[in-house]
Amino acid sequence: MRASTDKAAIATIVGRHSLLQKLSAIIFVALIVIMSGRGYLGYLKTMDSHRQAVLENMLFLREVFDNLTNRSHEELFRSAAHYRLPSGTELERNEIRAPSLLSGIDSVTFFDTTGRVLASAALDGVTMQPSLTHTAKALRNIASTQRPQASITCNNDECAESVFIPIISDDGRELIININRNAAGILQDFYNFTHTDIALFAPDTGKVYLASHKQSIVPILTEITANAHLKYTDDEQYFGPASGGYYGAHFFPLKDNSGLHIALISDESNITAIVSATIRDIVAAAVLSSLVLILIIVVILRPPLSRLVALTDLLPMLAKNEFQRAQEGIESVATNRFLRDEIDVLRDVLLDVNRALKEMASSVEEHRSALQSKISALTEANNFNDMLLDTSPMVIVIHDSEGNIQNLNAMGRALSGLGTTIDPGANINHWVHDPRRDISLSEATASLHRLPGRRQQNEMPFFAADGKSYDFLWIHTTIHLQNQRQILSLGIDITEHRRAEESLRWLGAHDRVTGLYNRATFIDEAERLLTSLALGHRIDLILLDIDNFAEFNDRFGFDSGDKLLKQFASRLEAELSDAALIARTGSGEFCVILVRDNNAISHLDTVLPSLTRISIDDEQYSENTSVTIVIDEYDDNFTSVGDMLANSTSTMRRVKNKAKGHVYHAEDTDTRDSRQEKYQMKEALAQALDNNRLVLFFQPIYSLEEERVSHCECLVRMLDANGNFVPPGEFLGIAAEANLMPRLDFIVLEKAMQQQSLWRKQGIDVGLSINITAPTLEQPDFAKRLAEIVKHTEADPERLIFELVETDALENIDNAEKLLGQFKNVGSRIALDDFGIGFTSFEYVRELPVDYIKIDQAFIRFIHERENDQALVRSMIEMGHSLGKKIIAEGVETKEALDMLKAMRVDYVQGYYLSRPVPIDALNLALKI
């Protein structure tokens, strides 16, 4: 009991003095902050004044350094003017004498006006000479200005003061004399004169060549550079801490544009002692002033604060209904009738409040028992209503015209994520609204407020808290609660019913197996799409047909056929753009409408070839099949999508009779637009040939054995009249039709051989691979013109490889062997391109004098994914090696394909993984993989 009494006494004492302590602490902290701020401002002002003085002194020291440097340069100029000029014989024999030890010169060099060194001499042990770049620059300046040049230059770890002066020898010859001496003397003179440290350094590397005290300056200079983040684009200044001290620094470049900088460093560490003393004085004054002021406050405020604390200690009694004790305590607090203050007023008010609370407590007790009986009756009624609401299999919500929820049953709370206590701001429109019509539940029931007594029915989704959406049928009516009009909404879940309807509609518009549009829906959607498109779009219809699909079903069953269809449909959706309209229009037939801007670059030429092969693996079988693809461009000649689809189907039948498993373009050569485009391209090509607007791009071919770029393939690009590159696919076909290929090939031959000749003169051991078409090779004077081009370009024929394309255009093996012999006659080699595509490739390899075989990229691009391609490529490599041929794999686009080709011992690789075709200035011949 005594312990509890002691604790209460301690708490009373602490409470009585807490206000006084807080006031004292606040005033003390405020004074400390004010005095500290004043001290900090004084510190900043002192530091800024000292900084300005130091930096101004640094500018003066820079002038001193410039004057010392200029004086030293003038001294060297005078030494050069009085230097003994050697005779012509001494210069020719390089027998000039070394400078005198007393001359202050370390080395001397004589040049003629062309910059050739005639003779030089230096003191024993002196190796410092200006660099070749610095010497060439000085000689050029003298040649243009005929004025002496002076500078400080550093080479390796030494620096010299160097001057170049034009002179005329006794025999009348114009000479240039270069005199050098150690530049350390200038820095030492500066330090002796100013007692300020100085350093000569290269800002790009941070290397310090010379310094007055190198061991101590280097760490200081390094830390200053790191702290100040200097860029050395112009004069730089620094004032701050470094290496445990305080320093001022000034950085500036030498005037001779040598790239070297001077650093002047002044030790200003004494400033910290001055600042520390000032701060100590300010802090001591602040603490003393605060203590005196707090003492005055305690003497003045202690008596009234004690009375205030006594009154505040009585307030908890009012909360505990201890009114009699509270009255006795308030009356015991002393008061002054003549000198009343706010505390006396507070004492009287507390007495009035105590009396009023005492009367109120007795009144409340009388009403409590009456209310208790009414609450019990209401509770039973509410429990019955809540049971009906919470067990109902529908959403029941009462809300006002703005959607604010007044009540919500258990099903509604479960869907909305609300607890048993509904938040005041909960609004039914947050969960019930129709985004398609952009309308909320309150907006849909607005008419009920204008016409009370009516009922309304509508459908609107309920967006649940778990992210799911449910379809609901709603019935709304108005009710009155607490004299306010509210809306009662009853919602019935019809989600399953709607999903069944949607499923039936979806099955009517889509293919059951793949989930794509069926033929009828595809035609309707395509017609709607074409009608909505504006001008400036290209529309392609792509028809894809799985070859021998009926045979596949017979062999493996319809379940496997469905699996193949699903797999191919997934590939179509993944490979083609999101804007494509895709459908399954037949047994193994798929149709695609692809829309793109006329100026957009098409990716069909790279995507569609990859879709011509399908591999399907199962536990019981593994099968590869092909796909034939027809691309048809939509134009005004087609009256409908059905017409266009029929045309593409007819084209598909024709091309399948020719060869399956390829990509074909259906061209209507009778259309005026097509003829006009070809005419314009032919005219543009003729202008490009006349105006030399053919440009060569180069793609590296990498030797895996030598681990370097052994040669590059030349690929032609055309520049149109606006300077834009035209890809070869747009003009090579026109060139072939217009019999322009020989002219184009000879231009490419000459440009390529000029580049190879330039490489040979530059010592670059890289060959060139040049494509030759059959019409050019069959020209009667081809051999003569080839020899003439080799001769006047001075190309090395042994570094040239000619790639034979369109081998099927050659009439027979004997004729082809004779034509290819023209390359052998000039010493070049031959590569057989696109190997593996044609049916005669193996025969050509055996009979023709080819040196290289280029496996077509159709077998290489996905070799790391297709086992069949791996087997074919491996057999081609083994067959080629057995015949003594080198194998080139083109179309290498991934590291996986590269690694697999290395394992197969292919000789060369080419493709986008190494480099795309690029102009000569972007070609990287040092490529490593």
Automatic annotation (TrEMBL):
Membrane recorded as keyword: yes
The protein here is known as EAL domain-containing protein
Q: Does the keyword NAD apply?
A: no
The UniProt entry, under SUPFAM superfamilies, shows: EAL domain-like (SSF141868), Nucleotide cyclase (SSF55073), PYP-like sensor domain (PAS domain) (SSF55785)
Entry's PANTHER family? CYCLIC DI-GMP PHOSPHODIESTERASE PDEF, OXYGEN SENSOR PROTEIN DOSP
Keyword list, A-Z:
Membrane, Transmembrane, Transmembrane helix
**Matches recorded under SMART domains:** EAL (SM00052), GGDEF (SM00267)
Start and end of every GGDEF domain?
537-668
Native organism: Spongiibacter thalassae
The top of its lineage is: Bacteria, Pseudomonadati, Pseudomonadota, Gammaproteobacteria, Cellvibrionales
Q: Where are the transmembrane segments?
A: 23-41, 282-301
User: Gene3D superfamilies under this entry?
Assistant: 3.30.70.270, EAL domain, PAS domain
Domain EAL: from-to ranges: 678-929
- Output the InterPro entries linked to this UniProt entry: Cyclic-di-GMP_PDE-like (IPR050706), EAL_dom (IPR001633), EAL_sf (IPR035919), GGDEF_dom (IPR000160), Nucleotide_cyclase (IPR029787), PAS (IPR000014), PAS-like_dom_sf (IPR035965), Rev_trsase/Diguanyl_cyclase (IPR043128)
Query: Which domain of life does the UniProt lineage start with?
Result: Bacteria
